[in-house]
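Structure ticket #2291
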Amino acid sequence: MLNASLSLFKTDQENLAVWNGTLYSYVSTTVTTEGVELELNGELAEGWQFSSGYAYSVSRNDDNERILMRAPLHSLKTFTTYRLPGAFNKLTVGGGFNWESRTHDGAQTEQSSYALFNLWGRYEISENLSASININKLFDKEYYLSIAGNSVAYGAPVMS
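Resolution: structure written out below.
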């Protein structure tokens, strides 16, 4: 069974602090953020689980100009797991990815769209004990965790 949900949203904020390329300043007009979120999850076949979510969000000022460009317009997250059948039924494997569209601070720093891939595995040793392994950022993609003016924070490497 596959479940789906759709959400539409709109938020109005006043006196929002926004990076203008040199410092944070308050936007004296109303900032409107609108978007949509779509989520699918469930069992596609016996032992095969799937989850995926997409979000679109844009913030604009009273002049209909886009602001808050440090937040991606689009993001997509997908993950799936499969419990092997028969003699291998104690093993479950999975994988997925997170993708975000291009972001920037409006002046100096730009982050191209990027995807991070992950793998996962679990072995059921007994009814009460299992062992699992997670491999995050499979291809060790370098990306900005956040963009804040003159500084950026990089996402964690695979091994630090």
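Closing remark: The first strand starts at residue 2 and ends at 19.
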